[in-house]
Amino acid sequence: MKKVILFAFAIVILTTSCSLKPDCVSPKLEGLMLSWGEENKITQEVKGYTLDDKGKLFYYEKKLGSTDIPMTKVLKVDEENYCEALQFTIEGFLENQVIHTPGVVSRFVELRTPVTGAVMAGKWNPTFKLNGSSEFVEMYEKLMDLVPEDEKNKGFLLREVSSDDAEFQLPKED
């Protein structure tokens, strides 16, 4: 009987601890979705990552305009890195509230908080350095640091895009 009670208690503890939100997720941030990635107007594809309010990181690919977004779980980000990236992103959006300078291929960062109904988003052309884009590039890079190296090569542009390049190279098809 003792073993059954201990086993039941262990199950309750494990399931509770697996669903806990990081300490930095306040009640106003519950249900948040932090997304970033690239949108390609030629291939009509969007490839990106989404981080939820529990620190779970997902990868997704979809067609532009599609509401169907199949996601694949990549990993659970540790609380310290999660909170640091979330805080950095929120502060970045507070400093630079918007950028919308899309290109043929655009990068984006978006934060949705359903409790408050807030949507903060930035979209920019990574080929050129534009006024205000550097803060969003920093947000994007900080978020990409959460992604394991073996996950980063999914058809995305190279992380560093030179603004000196006159020609823009699309990723090569595999």
Could you write a compact summary of the structure shown?
By secondary structure, the chain is an alpha+beta fold. The protein has helices at residues 2-19, 79-95, 133-144, and strands at 33-40, 45-52, 56-63, 71-76, 99-101, 105-113, 118-124. It has a seven-stranded mixed sheet with strand order 4-3-2-1-6-7-5, with helices on one face.
If you had to describe this structure to a student in words, what would you say it looks like?
- α2 (79-95) runs antiparallel to α3 (133-144).
- This protein is α+β, with helices and mostly antiparallel strands and 174 residues long.
- Strands 4-3-2-1-6-7-5 form a 7-stranded mixed sheet, with helices on one face.
- The chain has helices spanning 2-19, 79-95, 133-144; strands spanning 33-40, 45-52, 56-63, 71-76, 99-101, 105-113, 118-124.
- It has one domain (21-151): 2-Layer Sandwich (Mago nashi protein).
- It contains 3 helices and 7 strands; from the N terminus they run αββββαβββα.
- The longest helix is centred in the N-terminal third of the chain and has 18 residues, at 2-19.
